[in-house]
């Protein structure tokens, strides 16, 4: 396939412009041609000036850009590549900062050196201005010498622009790659947390790590080099000022020291307040999340005012902390922005009043130019300090999260569904707990053979969901052995619904098979619901399925599990929120029909299902959390 077919718009533009900066073509394994990123073949001059992107900008000027005009990412910039590298380095270092340096250390160092070069070039302006003003103030001046100085200034400006371009582009790429990989690391960790860790970290707190903390780290990455470049710039400017106005510059430096000391004081206080703020915010988010998760109970008990008061108390504490934070930030900003004025007044006052020297045009213009040179960096100090402080706190929070206890890999031994072993689930002399202290289930012995339908029942809170979690490896196994054979599908007691179409919720990323899909819909009694929805199975069911009833959510979650075609199904009360007629239909069509050859562990309170002749055995969990198995007379499911 030609490049014109794979990216016709860009190829046509390439032929019209005949640009050497346009992307080439790469033949993939399946015979398709793929446009290369133009930076891959760009010359060093094109990379330095970023001119390789010019054809794309011109194309956007000629017409509206479409998706086919975009270049594919270079392999080294793809998320899975950087994530794999960052994951590997974090396993070795167990430190977010050391992981960053291991992954991007050389690029980070080169960016710092390039920024130092760009900052050094800014000093050429006052130096050239000094020679020009001094020459023009004299009776005779050398024109050729002036032209040389002006050309040197031009060269310095060009070099500064090139260095700034390099820093801006490469730093942007680097921090985006790192934050993307860091989010991957956080997501992986969130999936591996054990039950004890999940109790300490609510969904809202984990979300804040993924969004707010990563955003603060991203913001700090852009300014981190300036924290050491700006002091060097201030020192260089101070030296030039001393050579120009002598001891009067010492007074200016003294003002700088006073202001920077004030900045340091305010920054330390801001850091302390921000650390308190994050804890208060986490507490508020935890309370808010708890209320939303238990909103039905809150409504039934008319606890709205009480819960609102708890949230409001946390919010008031948060607002009080924010006000203190803003007052300190305002004081720090006023001190920093007033620094250039303080320096000018004190320096010129000492120069005229104490040293009693005359203020010539050269002294005034060059001094003002030098003061102007450090004005913006000094104004940025407080903002950068606050940004880095927030990032430091965020790194500590993320580091603490990444060090939390994970699920033990050997909680469950997983094997393939071979024929040599007839057991689908085997639990022998096992003791389980949600943490390392309290035992939830003790002395569990349970053998479930392939193709069996096993019912688990017991009083409320006795540990039925805990037994399901133990089979999944979600609980801490303190003793014994658990073996699960084959792929496992799990349907939780609280249905999980994605903010997608109903069909996408059921498919869950699997390929669409029309016949299989219809069988699943029929088995889960969803045809009537689809007919009532405005767009059928293409209806967007919203965040957490808010426009669905509890029974509809449960049946969609069950349909998702059925569509995976797993070997073992662990179903935690999926029929609890549907009426008796629908329960009977799902039990007959789904459990005894669609899944008749599968291994099923069903948690239920329905006595008709528990006593059904098609149930292979019933497992009772006693109030003292012991598992008692009762074998039934019949051991076969209906066809």
Report on this model:
- There is one protein chain.
- With 639 residues, the chain is an alpha/beta fold.
- It folds into three domains: 70 residues, no CATH class; 161 residues, ABC transporter type 1, transmembrane domain (ABC transporter transmembrane region fold), CATH 1.20.1560; 222 residues, Rossmann fold (3-Layer(aba) Sandwich), CATH 3.40.50.
- Helices cover 61% and strands 11% of the residues.
- The protein contains 23 helices and twelve strands.
- Strands 8-9-10-6-11-12 form a six-stranded mixed beta sheet, sandwiched between helices. Strands 3-7-4-5 form a four-stranded mixed beta sheet, with helices on one face. The protein has a two-stranded antiparallel sheet with strand order 1-2.
- Strand 11 and strand 12 form a beta hairpin.
- Helix 11 runs antiparallel to helix 12.
- The N terminus is likely disordered.
Spatial separation of the terminal alpha carbons:
52 Å
Described by strand count, sense and barrel closure, the largest sheet is: 6 strands, mixed
Level-1 CATH class name of the largest domain: Alpha Beta
- The order of strands across the largest sheet is 8-9-10-6-11-12
Any low-confidence stretches, pLDDT <50, length ≥5? 1-34
The CATH architecture term of the largest domain is 3-Layer(aba) Sandwich
What is the CA-based Rg, rounded? 34 Å
- CATH-assigned fold name of the largest domain: Rossmann fold
What's the CATH superfamily of the largest domain, by name? P-loop containing nucleotide triphosphate hydrolases
Strand-pairing-aware structural class: alpha/beta
Strand content: 5-15%
Overall pLDDT confidence = 82
In total, how many beta strands? 12
């Amino acid at each position: 396939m030609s490049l014109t077919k794979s990216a016709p718009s860009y190829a046509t533009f390439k032929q019209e412009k005949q640009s050497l900066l346009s992307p080439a073509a790469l033949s993939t394994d399946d015979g398709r041609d793929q446009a290369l990123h133009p930076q891959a073949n760009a010359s060093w001059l094109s990379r330095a000036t970023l001119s390789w992107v010019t054809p794309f900008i011109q194309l956007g000027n000629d017409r509206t850009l479409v998706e086919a005009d975009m270049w594919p990412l270079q392999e080294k910039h793809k998320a899975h590549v950087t994530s794999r590298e960052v994951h590997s380095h974090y396993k070795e270092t167990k430190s977010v900062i050391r992981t960053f340096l291991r992954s991007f250390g050389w690029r980070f160092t080169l960016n710092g050196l390039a920024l130092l070069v760009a900052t050094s070039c800014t000093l050429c302006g006052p130096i050239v201005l000094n020679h020009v003003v001094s020459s023009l103030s004299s009776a005779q001046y050398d024109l050729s010498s002036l032209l040389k100085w002006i050309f040197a200034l031009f060269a310095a400006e060009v070099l500064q622009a090139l260095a700034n371009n390099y820093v801006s582009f490469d730093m942007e790429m680097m921090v985006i790659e790192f934050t993307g990989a860091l989010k991957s690391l956080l997501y992986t960790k969130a999936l591996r947390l054990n039950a004890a860790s999940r109790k300490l970290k609510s969904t809202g707190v984990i979300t804040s790590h993924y969004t707010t903390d990563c955003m603060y780290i991203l913001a700090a990455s852009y300014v981190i080099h300036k924290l050491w470049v700006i002091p060097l710039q201030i020192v260089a400017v101070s030296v030039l000022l001393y050579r120009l106005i002598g001891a009067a510059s010492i007074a200016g430096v003294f003002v700088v020291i006073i202001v920077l000391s004030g900045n340091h004081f305010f920054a330390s206080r801001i850091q302390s307040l921000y650390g308190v703020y994050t804890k208060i915010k986490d507490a508020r988010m935890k309370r808010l999340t708890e209320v939303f998760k238990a909103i039905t109970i809150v409504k039934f008990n008319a606890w709205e005012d009480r819960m609102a008061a708890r949230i409001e108390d946390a919010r008031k504490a948060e607002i009080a902390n924010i006000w203190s934070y803003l007052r300190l930030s305002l004081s720090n900003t006023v001190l920093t922005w007033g620094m250039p004025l303080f320096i000018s007044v004190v320096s010129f006052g000492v120069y005229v009043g104490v040293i009693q020297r005359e203020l010539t045009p050269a002294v005034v213009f060059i001094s003002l130019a030098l003061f102007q040179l450090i004005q913006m960096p000094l104004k940025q100090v407080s903002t950068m300090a606050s940004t880095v402080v927030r990032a430091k706190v965020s790194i500590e929070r993320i580091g603490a999260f990444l060090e939390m206890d994970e699920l033990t890999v050997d909680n469950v031994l997983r094997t393939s569904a071979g024929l040599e072993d007839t057991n689908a689930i085997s639990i022998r002399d096992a003791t389980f707990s949600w943490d390392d202290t309290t035992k939830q289930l003790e002395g569990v012995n349970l053998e479930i053979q392939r193709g069996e339908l096993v019912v688990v029942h017991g009083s409320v809170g006795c540990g039925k969901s805990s037994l399901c979690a133990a089979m999944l490896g979600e609980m801490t196994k303190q003793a014994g052995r658990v073996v699960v054979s084959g792929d496992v599908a799990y349907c939780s007691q609280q249905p999980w619904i994605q903010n997608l179409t109903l069909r996408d919720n059921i498919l869950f990323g699997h390929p669409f098979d029309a016949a299989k899909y219809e069988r699943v819909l029929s088995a889960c009694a969803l045809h009537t619901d689809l007919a009532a929805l405005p767009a059928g199975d293409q209806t967007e069911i919203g965040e957490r399925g808010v426009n669905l009833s509890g029974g509809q959510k449960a049946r969609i979650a069950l349909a998702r599990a059925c569509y995976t075609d797993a070997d073992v199904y662990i179903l935690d009360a999926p029929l609890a929120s549907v009426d008796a007629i629908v329960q009977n239909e799902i039990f007959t069509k789904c459990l005894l029909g669609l899944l008749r050859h599968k291994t099923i562990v069903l948690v239920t309170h329905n006595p008709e299902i528990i006593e059904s002749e098609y149930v292979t055995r019933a497992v009772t969990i006693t109030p003292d959390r012991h598992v008692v198995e009762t074998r039934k007379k019949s051991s076969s499911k209906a066809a």
